[in-house]
Specification:
The complex is a heterodimer of chains A (about 210) and B (about 300).
Chain A lengths: L29 E4 L2 E4 H14 L3 E5 L1 H4 L4 H20 L7 E2 L23 H8 L3 E5 L3 H14 L3 E5 L10 E3 L4 H13 L16
Parallel strand pairs in A: 3-4, 3-5, 5-6, 6-7
Antiparallel strand pairs in A: 1-2, 1-7
Chain B lengths: L17 H9 L29 H12 L6 E5 L4 H4 L6 E4 L5 H15 L6 E7 H7 L1 H9 L5 E6 L34 H7 L4 E6 L3 H17 L3 E6 L13 H8 L9 E4 L1 H28 L1
Helix pairs in contact in B: 2-8, 4-6, 5-6
The chains are: A alpha/beta (about 210), B alpha/beta (about 300).
Chain lengths: ~210, ~300
């Protein structure tokens, strides 16, 4: 079994893909934390804890939920808004939750506005600009999520969570799989349950922020 | 893509950047009579561009995107060159191909789309520079025409390799000296419109992009003919003002000067017999529609 762990960076300019370092994806009903497979229940707790600890906990919804291309996508969007509102209600003064979209994957030239969006080709700009120290990707196509997660791990110290609708992401520090409306709501419940029990970080992480 | 899919989830609408909201609210997807006159009245399908200030290619892009008859069901294929810097800003599906490969990619794409969506009209439009169309990709360009592939090829002819500093291209005029071609071009400009005609294109146009109404007409005709009959080719003069030593404001005048009857970009067209027949049918239908609308309006009044 690999000793490699997927930890907040900055790892280095071109971090190795976690898969190449021996990190495996979870089976249904499981998740991974730092590359270690755990029961899904434990991952809800950990993700909620990370949100409540972060100075700028952020959700990054991608095109699969931003665009109402089917009924399920619209329902997931509603659940994401609920999760965001829950985090907002549960954090303490000084913590500033954000909801920043990734509307599509085109490289944005000549510039991106990091205050209003994130782009998979240079996600670090949005992380740096907003001093984000914990984020969750949801509704992003897997290949673009992998790209973003690796860049973020390479150049920032942001804690990354993936709520993946497929098999999960090795390159996230915490990854769920088979994302559904129920799972998003369950995460919101976990945040609510842990409200007031987690001490927020006073200052944001050194490089992600 | 289809119009039904261009809807933002209600619960996340407020966080979407305004250019996406505008695309949904006021772009001209699905508008039957869309054209260059929509520019300024509706959201354009090009957000911004990364070309040089005053580049005629940016005008061409705006007119072409405003004129595509079916943008929600169109896929554009681009190639290496100045155009490839613009495609990320375009709200029409597009593919960047390897340098010169664009017509081969478009051939496969068109066939795949007709198998995957048998009941739907899907247009494919190639848009590449003269280096990709005439030099590096000439094989793929011609083979697609020989095979009578049903898509439109648009060549932005700036008569050299612009974004690599000004090397000689096949479409450069004889004797022209460029920054990276100091000896001067030794042979004539390749006569691709004639070659296109002989290779089986049903609609071949050579013109500049100085007149938006003309660009609209030829783009619409080219797409409609490609849809029903076979390959079509547009060669549009989009001068590189930097490489020919002009200022940002002089691109339009350069095109006007070059399209005079005795100049090398005088308007030229070739339309095959079946294409002529199709255009006549489309024109008759349009007239009928207009007459019906007029009648309806007069009854209402």
């Amino acid at each position: 079994m690999t000793q490699y762990r997927v930890l907040p960076g900055p790892e280095h300019f071109l971090p190795p893909s976690a898969a190449s370092m021996g990190i495996c994806l979870p089976d249904p009903g499981e998740a991974h934390i730092n590359g270690v497979i755990v029961p899904e229940e434990k991952a809800y707790e950990e993700a909620a804890k990370q949100f409540l600890m972060a100075k700028v906990p952020t959700l990054f919804p991608g095109p699969l939920v931003l665009w109402a291309w089917n009924e399920k996508a619209a329902k997931k969007a509603t659940a994401i808004r609920h999760l965001y509102n829950t985090i907002k209600e549960c954090v303490q003064p000084g913590q500033t939750p954000m909801l920043i979209p990734m509307p599509d994957y085109r490289p944005k030239y000549p510039k991106i506005n990091p205050e209003v969006e994130i782009n998979p080709n240079h996600p670090n700009l949005t992380i740096w600009h907003n001093k984000i120290d914990c984020c969750m990707f949801i509704g992003v196509h897997c290949h673009q999520a992998n790209l973003s997660l690796k860049i973020i791990r390479g150049g920032t110290s942001c804690y990354t969570i993936a709520m993946c609708a497929q098999a999960g992401h090795e390159d996230a520090m915490l990854s769920f799989r088979d994302a559904s409306v129920e799972k998003i709501m369950k995460l919101a419940d976990a945040v609510k349950r842990l409200k007031g029990t987690v001490k927020p970080r006073l200052t944001s992480a050194k490089n992600g922020a | 893509m289809s119009k039904e899919k261009i809807k933002i989830s209600e619960d996340l609408y407020d966080i979407m950047p305004s250019d996406y909201q505008d695309l949904v609210k006021s772009a001209t997807y699905g508008k039957e009579d869309r054209g260059w006159k929509d520019i300024g009245n509706s959201k354009e399908l090009i957000e911004q561009h990364s070309l040089c200030a005053g580049c005629p290619e940016s005008m061409a892009f705006r007119y072409i995107l405003a004129s595509l008859p079916n943008p929600e069901d169109t896929v554009m294929v681009g190639s290496t060159g100045c155009t490839s810097l613009v495609f990320p800003m375009v709200a029409v599906h597009n593919i960047h191909s390897l340098f010169g490969n664009q017509n081969a990619i478009a051939s496969g794409l068109k066939r795949a789309l007709s198998v995957r969506f048998p009941g739907r009209t899907k247009d494919v439009v190639v848009l590449a520079g003269d280096g990709a169309t005439v030099d590096i990709g000439l094989d793929m360009t011609l083979q697609a025409w020989f095979r009578q592939e049903k898509f439109t090829t648009i060549c932005f002819d700036n008569e050299l390799y612009a974004n690599t500093g000004g090397q000689e291209s096949g479409l450069m005029q004889k004797g022209f000296v460029a920054k990276m071609a100091p000896v001067g071009k030794l042979f004539d400009k390749v006569r691709l419109p004639e070659i296109a005609r002989e290779s089986g294109c049903h609609y071949v146009i050579q013109c500049t992009v100085s007149k938006p109404s003309l660009v609209e007409k030829v783009v619409r005709n080219a797409v409609m003919i490609a849809r029903e009959i076979g390959p079509t080719y547009l060669q549009l003069y989009t001068p590189c003002i930097l490489e020919i030593g002009k200022n940002s404001m002089e691109g339009l005048q350069e095109m006007r000067d070059s399209e005079k009857p005795t100049e090398r970009f005088a308007y030229r067209e070739y339309i095959s017999e079946p294409a002529k027949q199709l255009l006549a049918e489309i024109s008759a239908k349009d007239k009928e529609k207009k007459a019906a609308a007029k009648q309806l309006a007069s009854q209402g009044a």
